[in-house]
Amino acid sequence: MSNIKFHLKTFGCQMNVYDSSRIVDLLQLHNMQQVDDELDADVIILNTCYIREKASAKIFSELGRIYKLYLRFKKAQPVFAVIGCVAKAEGENIFKRAPFVSIVLSSQKYHLLPELITQALENIESVNSSEKKSKKVEHKINTDLSGLEKFDCLPKVKKSEKVAFVQIQEGCDNFCTYCVVPNTRGREVSRNEKDILSEIENLQNLGAIEVNLLGQNVDCYNGLDENGKPSNLAGIISKVAKFDNVKRIRYTTSYPSKFSDDMIELHRNEKKLMPLVYLPIQSGSNEILKKMNRKYTREQYLFIVEKLKNANPDIQISSDFIVGFPNETEEDFQQTLDIVKKVQFIQCYAFKYSPRPNTPAQKMDGQIDNKIKSERLKRLQYELRKSQDKFNKSCVGRVMSVLFTDVSKTNPEYIIGKNEYLQPVIVKAYKSLLGSIQNVKITSGSYANLKGEIA
To answer: Which residues contact residue 329 at a Cβ distance below 8 angstroms, ignoring those fewer than 6 apart?
Structure first.
């Protein structure tokens, strides 16, 4: 079977984006072609996220939309595959609600796609044939979360962007009461240093100059080094920094109580390590942190931030917040606003609490009315925006290092890049500077972005 075309749609976090890029590499290795138009595809793949409320409903809606599109245009039914967190959470229920789906795989099992797609296409051909309309789509499912064997099956990357993402750790052992990740991504597992460094060496040879190390709890990384001894995040970053072509290093996502003194020292001494630390706190109230099963207090969080800024005054903090968690009082919420004012986060993601199935928080008494959640979120976002706006304006007059990656969609005379703090920086300059790091003098700053000129 040749000339197989697939359409891949990705939902959710950067980890899913990374997985999708590797799925593309894998399928192209098996001579399958990625297409942008859904109606041109023999295979439709949805790589899914389950973090937010109504995530499953969104996926089933998307499946139904695409299926009806094929019926409307009288196209032969494609193979439908659901990958990732919704696949794990919903399992066999996907086949009950969308019987036209052929393949359901967890995020740990997408390396099985080529074989299962081939089998499914043979079955679909018989389903689509006029003399066998009554034949049903065969269902294949594997939602196991154990092991890291998928990495042994993935090909070497053949093309890299200037900013490359590399998964070093997966899964979570923290069991926050609101979170489904341990159930949809599995328990913590780490790749060995040798495999990670080999992947990064290949990426730098292909042109990557910034590397972002990914993990659900990236500072829980404990893969084995070349001597078979446990390493840690600071250890592997130190080795990545030795690659000549890698000029910038980032990591995502940290967990406060796991943030080590080794990492603080690395932020003091390693110039390639960017000075933006993404350190989700979720709430400023110790009472709510306890109910969330977050294993730190506000005092401990503030102490980590203080140590980081003492080690490197250039460091700035970004974070996550959940408002309206069960039993959150106005006093609890005021503690969150107080943390925002103390830390002065320069970037943040803030969300209303949304109950997730089979999590302890879903069953807690004291669920907060949605109107209260919305009102608190609006107040929180106002304070966060003030902090971000203040920092952006403080950048005016500074010379910052910017990696340019895009041309402005509104004015092609301008190019856009990200500085050390992941802030968008807009400069009027030649497109030939795309893919390079340039010093830029910031001339104006707003909440949304910075503008400047090549220094």
So the answer is: none
